Amino acid sequence: MPKRYVMVIDLRRCVGCQACTVACKQENNVPLTAFRTWVKQIEKGRYPNVRKVSLPSLCNHCEKPICVQNCPVQASYQREDGIVLIDYDRCIGCKYCIASCPYDVRFVNPLRKTVEKCTFCVHRVDRGEKPACVETCMAKARTFGDLNDPNSDVSRLIADFPVSPLKPDSGTVPRVFYVYPDELAMETHGTDAKYIKYYHRDLKQEISLNEDDIRERHKILEGVSRADRFYDYRIGSNRPIR
User: Fold this and answer.
1) Where do the domains of the chain lie?
2) CATH topology of domain 5-234
3) pTM of this prediction?
4) What DSSP letter does each residue of 113-136 carry, written as one string?
C-alpha cells in the first residue's frame, strides 16, 4: 500500500512560539513578506478572563486538491503519497490556484514570480527526515507520518483523540488534522483584519523592501535554499537531487 502523508497538530501543546514559522523560512528560504506556515493567534474572553488561542496554518495537502484541478498549465500536481507540489518551470503565476484554495496558504514569490506554498519539506521527507516545522517544535505539537500505517503516530493520534481538519465541508478532503480545535480560531479567515496583526506585525519595513533588497537578502534565484538544492520540483523529475 502506498504511503499517505498527513500532519496532526495537537492544539493542547501549541504555545504559539512561532518556532515552526522561523524554521520553515530558514529551511525553504521563504521571502520576508510571505509565509508557508504561520501560527494564527486570537484572543478570547473579556478582561480579566482572557486567553490566547493558537492555530498553526499551512497547506493541507488535500486528498482532492482543487488547486491541482484548476491549474491551467498543470503546474500544481499531487504525488502518489499525497504531497501536493508545484512545478516552478511550468507555473506562470496566474494565481488561479490562490483563488481556488479555500485555506489561503499560497503566495507569489516576488523573485521567481511563481506560486509557492508548504511542501511538507519533501526534500527532507524523501531522505527519511521530518519536515522542518515538526523537527523544531519544542512542544511536540506537530506530528507527521503515514496515515496508511495503523501503527504510525499520526494514525494513533487520529484514533485516540477528537480531531478535525479545517473547512471539512470544502470538498477537498484536507489532510492536516487538529486535536481539540478551537471553533472560533478555525472559522476566522487567515486574512481577517482583526487578527492579521498577530502574524504580520512589525513587517512594515520588510514589506517596503524593493526587489533588489529582497534578492540580496535571500538569494533565491541563486538556489541557496536547502529545498532547491536537494529536490527537483519539475513534474518529469520529481525526485531528490543526489
Assistant:
1) 5-234
2) Alpha-Beta Plaits (3.30.70)
3) 0.80
4) -SEE---TTHHHHTTTPPPHHHHH
